[in-house]
Design a protein that fits this description.
With 473 residues, the protein is mainly alpha-helical. It has 13 helices and 8 strands. The chain is 34% helix and 5% strand. It is globular.
Amino acid sequence: MKKFWFWSLGFMLAPIMVLGLLTAAEAAKEETKKAASPPVSSYAPVVIKEPFAVTLERMKKEKPQIMQRQMDLLKQRYDLENRPASGVTMTRGKAVQEGVRVKLSQGMTWEKLAEMNPEQIKEQGLWPAGFLPLPHPNHPEGGMLFPKFHIEEIKKQEGRDLTRFDLDYDLPDHFLPEFPPAIFLTTRPDLGDVSQGKVVTLMNYYELFNGILNPKQLEGLRLLVTPFPQQQFNQTEDRRSELPSRGVTCFDCHVNGHTNAATHLVGDIRPQEFRHRIDTPPLRGVNIQRLFGSQRALKSVEDFTEFEQRAAYFDGDPVIGTKKGLNILDRGHQVHAMAEFQAILDFPPAPKLDIYGKLDPKKATEAELRGQEIFFGKAQCAVCHIPPYYTDNLMHNLKTERFFKPQMVNGRMANQDGPIKTFPLRGIKESPPYLHDGRLLTLEDTVEFFNLVQGLKLTPQEKKDLVAFLRAL
């Protein structure tokens, strides 16, 4: 009887022992897999184990496929045709693009979509792809990326090459701000545009501004056009320029104190797939702003200027900055000089606005006046965009995740945007594309976006009038 009991017990335990062995084997396999993949870290790798020549060859070879993937995404999301608005230009004459460019699902209209609630849109997968976060051309890689026209001008003036061997800029030129942009100064509004139609660089800043700026402002401008090492443009083996580079300047993104829509990724989010693409905001009117940096943790333009050089230039990683050439500015002199110049960059003139930032009825069109009424009424734009500069200097969470399920798009995890800053709307027609990551190509796209997000149910005519008002700001 005892023998039978032991035999029966062994028979019952055998599968459990085998299962235990299998589980242990699976666990060992999982541990091996984890060991083979790099651990998640907040830091960029400091020691690069691949020779630069190998990196160069590999990334050049990968570039066509990566750029094709990004361009396919843009064509899937947007109508990219060059269709300028009749009679609407930026200060120096560049045409403003018109029309809604975000594409809808087949058979869907903006009116039908506006009748649906967020849950219905989410469950049926009808949120327009162009309203999802826009990924960097190579989101897993990231880094500063400049439009071709800016690269060519800096190369011509300084011999400094901002070309990346691994990537090209993605958005078509006709959706970008005019180049070079005008420059208006709060200290000398009588001069109008002081740019003389030139891109301000280290080669010409003195001749352009000597006699207009005071010595401290002139020194601040010099520093703003002086190249300093940056994550992708430096002398190390993990740069993204073919030759060792002197670096980038503040005005390589904020050209002429405005913007050329240069892009990169925010420095203050980890891991990589959750980092937001940046659409470089203008420095115009920076004197009336109170929040700076991608997460608005910086409370003055001095903080922002110092942070950019210490960390933002290096993807928010001061450790890698030490390796590549961290430029520590003197707060009492250099930072303040740079901030003093930035603080006198003015918005472009808006001749139809009165001293309160509202339309003068004698100068405005009927459409613009109707649009103003909608802006301050039905559309509730003025809850956040308060005149005269049309910002409340606060952060607001639009909670767009109500409308779509989390999804990976070209290496970018589209989920929650979180709170975003209320940008000033003065001169808004001169700084496309729109929203913090540039996902909205036109003002019409922007109106459709907020019409859905806020549940406004604007009529087609109200949308047109609202755009007319925005163009007058």
